[in-house]
Write a structure and sequence with these properties.
- The protein is of the alpha/beta class and 316 residues long.
- It folds into two domains: 8-120 and 294-315, NAD(P)-binding Rossmann-like Domain (Rossmann fold), CATH 3.40.50; 123-287, 2-Layer Sandwich (Dihydrodipicolinate Reductase, domain 2), CATH 3.30.360.10.
- The protein has ten helices and 13 strands.
- The protein has helices at 17-27, 45-54, 64-75, 108-114, 123-137, 159-167, 186-193, 229-239, 291-305, 309-315, and strands at 8-12, 33-35, 57-60, 83-86, 98-99, 117-119, 148-154, 174-176, 200-206, 212-219, 246-249, 268-275, 280-287.
- It has a seven-stranded mixed beta sheet with strand order 8-9-7-10-13-12-11.
- α4 (108-114) links the parallel β5 (98-99) and β6 (117-119).
- The two termini are 25 Å apart.
- Bound molecules: NADPH dihydro-nicotinamide-adenine-dinucleotide phosphate and N-acetyl-L-glutamyl 5-phosphate.
- NADPH dihydro-nicotinamide-adenine-dinucleotide phosphate binds next to α1, α3, α6 and α9.
- Pathway: Amino-acid biosynthesis; L-arginine biosynthesis; N(2)-acetyl-L-ornithine from L-glutamate: step 3/4.
Length: 316
C-alpha cells in the first residue's frame, strides 16, 4: 500500500554507478516519484532515517557495510519501515531476504512482489545461475558436477574507482582476477544454482565500459545419460519459455560471441555451444552488467515490489 498517491522511492547511494543507472531508468518510468537527500547530507544518518520513514521503497546502492547499516536503520522504523531492495552483496544468501531473480524458479516473481526485503543479484551469478539451475532441476547436470564458471565484464562492474583507473589509462587492458578463489559471488552462485560442490569462478575484466559474458564448459560424458547439447538447449528453452527478458538462442554459426550487444537493455541471452564428436559443450550467458546485471534487474524487481510490472515491461 503506497504511503502517498503514487509510490515513492529513495535511492541510498544514488550518486554511484548502480544508483545512477537505477535513477535514470526510474525517471523514465511513469507512476513512481523519486525522493532524494541534499547531496551534502547524503551520508547523514538522521537525514536518511527521516526520508526512509516517508517513502514506500528504499534501494540500497552502497558498499556492503553501509548497506547493512542502512538496512538496520530501516528495520528500526517498525510500522513505518519501507520495503528494501539491496544492490550490494550483503544479504544475497540471507534467509530473511528474497533473492531478486524473478526467472529463478516458478513463483519467484510472486515471492519478490510479496517480500519486505529483496536482495538484487550479482551480475556474474545472474548469468551463471540462469544457465545452471534449469539443468540441475532437469536432472541433466548432477549437483556435484565440478563446475567452472569463466566470465568477462566491462570495467564499470568495478564501480567508480575501477572506471577511473581504466579511463585514466592506469589499468591493464585485460586482467584475470579472483584467483584467490574467494570471490564474493561464489556463495550465491552455488546456492541458487543448487550445486552441492563449490564451483570454481574465474572472472576477468577488459577495456570496454559495459557488457558481460559468463561461460561454463561441460564434458557431456559426465552429465546424466551423456546428455547432448540439444538436450541442454531444450531444457533451457523450456525453462524460460514466455520470459520477458531471458531468451535461449541457437549459437551463432561462427563460434564467436562478443559481450556488448545487449548494452543498455534488461535482456539476457543464453546459448549452448556443443560438439558431439568431442563430447563437449560450453554454456554462455550474455548480459549488460549494468542492465540485467545491476540497474535493469533492480528496476524489474522494483516493478514487482510496487506493482508496476507492466510499466517496467513497456519501458524495457
Ligand atoms: N557496478 C556494478 O556493476 C554493480 C554494483 N553492485 C553493487 O552496488 C553497490 C554500489 O556499487 P557501485 O554503484 O558499483 O559503487 P560506486 O563506488 O560506483 O558507488 C557507491 C556510492 O555509494 C556512496 N556511499 C558510500 N557510503 C555511503 C553512505 N554511508 N551513505 C550514502 N552513500 C554512500 C558512494 O559515495 P562516495 O563515493 O562519496 O563514497 C558512491 O557514490 C555495491 O554494493 C556493489 O557491489 C551491484 C551490481 C552491479
Ligand atoms: C569487474 C568487477 O570488478 N566486477 C565486480 C562485480 C560487480 C557486480 O556486479 O558485483 P555486485 O553485484 O556484487 O556488486 C567484482 O568482481 O567484484
Amino acid at each position: 500500500m503506497a504511503k502517498g498517491t503514487i509510490p515513492t522511492i529513495f535511492i541510498d547511494g544514488e550518486a554511484g554507478t548502480t544508483g545512477l543507472g537505477i535513477r535514470q531508468r526510474l525517471e523514465a518510468l511513469p507512476g513512481v516519484a523519486l525522493r532524494s537527500i541534499d547531496p551534502e547530507r547524503r551520508k547523514n544518518p538522521e537525514a536518511k532515517r527521516a526520508l526512509m520513514a516517508e517513502v514506500d521503497l528504499v534501494v540500497l546502492c552502497l558498499p556492503d557495510a553501509a548497506a547493512k547499516e542502512s538496512a538496520a536503520m530501516a528495520a528500526s522504523l517498525g510500522a513505518d519501515a519501507p520495503k528494501l531492495l539491496d544492490a550490494s552483496t550483503a544479504h544475497r544468501v540471507d534467509p530473511d531476504w528474497v533473492y531478486g531473480v524473478p526467472e529463478l524458479a516458478p513463483g519467484q516473481g510472486d515471492r519478490i512482489a510479496a517480500a519486505p526485503r529483496v536482495a538484487n543479484p550479482g551480475c556474474y551469478p545472474t548469468g551463471g545461475i540462469l544457465l545452471l539451475r534449469p539443468l540441475v532441476e532437469a536432472g541433466l547436470l548432477p549437483s556435484d558436477y565440478p563446475v567452472t564458471v569463466n566470465a568477462v565484464s566491462g570495467y564499470s562492474g568495478g564501480g567508480k574507482a575501477m572506471i577511473e583507473t581504466f579511463e585514466e589509462g592506469e589499468h591493464p587492458a585485460f586482467e584475470l582476477y579472483g584467483l584467490a578463489l574467494e570471490h564474493k559471488h561464489v556463495p550465491e552462485l552455488q546456492a541458487y544454482s543448487k550445486l552441492s560442490r563449490r564451483p570454481i569462478f574465474v572472472p576477468s575484466v577488459g577495456a570496454f565500459r559495459q557488457g558481460m559474458l559468463v561461460s561454463v564448459p561441460l564434458h557431456l560424458g559426465l552429465l546424466a545419460g551423456n546428455a547432448s547439447p540439444e538436450a541442454l538447449h531444450e531444457a533451457l528453452a523450456a525453462y524460460y519459455a514466455g520470459s520477458d527478458f531471458v531468451s535461449v538462442l541457437p549459437p551463432t554459426t561462427d563460434g564467436k560471441l562478443e559481450p556488448e550487444a545487449l548494452n543498455n537493455t534488461n535482456k539476457l541471452e543464453l546459448r549452448v555451444y556443443g560438439n558431439d564428436a568431442r563430447g563437449q559443450a560450453v554454456l554462455v550467458a550474455r548480459l549488460d552488467n549494468l542492465g540485467k546485471g545491476a540497474s535493469g534487474a533492480a528496476v524489474q524487481n522494483i516493478g514487482l515490489m510496487l506493482g508496476l510490472g507492466e510499466a517496467v515491461r513497456a519501458a524495457a
